[in-house]
Write a structure and sequence with these properties.
alpha+beta; elongated; 4-stranded antiparallel beta sheet; about 180 residues
Length: about 180
C-alpha cells in the first residue's frame, strides 16, 4: 500500500493563489443551457405605475419587437408556453403562423386606449378614469362623486381638502396639472 506522502507527491501542485472555490469552479466546466428559452416569446407592453397598454407582441427574436408607445416598455412573459397556450386558445394558431412568416405579430393594438396625460387643456367632459393620475387620487375622487375633469375644476380647494386621504400636496398636484386656475 502506498504511503500518503507518495500520493501527495504525485498530485500536481496548485498555484499559490488558487483557493477551493476557484478549484471547484474550474473543475465543474459543465455545458449549461442559455437562461432564455429559444423560439416563440410573448412580450406585454406596460405603462408607468404597472398598467398594461393592451398590446401583446409575439416574436421569435427580441430585436424584432416594435418600438413601445411613449412612456411604455416591453416585458417578456416568462410563463408563456406556446404549446399550452395553443391548447387553451386555438385562435392563437393564426397569430403564431403570422409570427413564423413575418417575425413579429402585435395583438390588441386596436382596442387599446391609452390614458391621457394630465394637463390644463383637457376638455371638461374627460372622465377622471381616462386621465393618467395616481390611483390613490383617482379612488378618492371617484368615492366622493367626482367623475369628470369639469366637475373637478368646479370643486374648490377647501372641499377637496375635506376628502379623506387627499392632502394639500395632492390638491396642489391636481391644481397644477388639471385645474388651470
Amino acid at each position: 500500500m502506498e504511503d500518503t506522502q507518495d500520493i501527495i507527491a504525485k498530485e500536481p501542485a496548485l498555484p499559490a493563489f488558487a483557493n477551493s472555490a476557484e478549484l471547484s469552479r474550474s473543475e465543474s466546466k459543465e455545458v449549461t443551457k442559455p437562461s432564455s428559452p429559444r423560439g416563440l416569446k410573448r412580450y406585454v407592453e406596460w405603462m408607468t405605475r404597472g398598467r398594461r397598454t393592451g398590446r401583446t407582441a409575439y416574436v421569435l427574436r427580441e430585436w424584432d419587437l416594435p418600438a413601445p408607445l411613449s412612456g411604455a416598455e416591453w416585458a417578456v412573459d416568462t410563463k408563456f408556453n406556446a404549446a399550452e397556450e395553443l391548447l387553451k386558445d386555438p385562435k392563437l394558431k393564426a397569430t403564431i403562423a403570422a409570427v413564423l412568416k413575418n417575425g413579429v405579430e402585435i395583438v390588441g393594438a386596436i382596442e387599446m386606449k391609452v390614458k391621457q396625460k394630465p394637463s390644463v387643456g383637457l376638455p371638461d367632459e374627460t372622465r377622471i378614469a381616462d386621465v393618467d393620475l395616481p390611483r390613490r387620487i383617482q379612488h378618492v375622487l371617484a368615492s366622493n362623486g367626482i367623475r369628470t375633469v369639469g366637475e373637478l375644476r368646479k370643486t374648490g380647494d377647501d372641499a377637496l381638502l375635506r376628502f379623506q386621504d387627499l392632502g394639500s400636496r395632492s390638491v396642489a398636484f391636481i391644481r397644477e396639472h388639471l385645474r388651470g386656475r
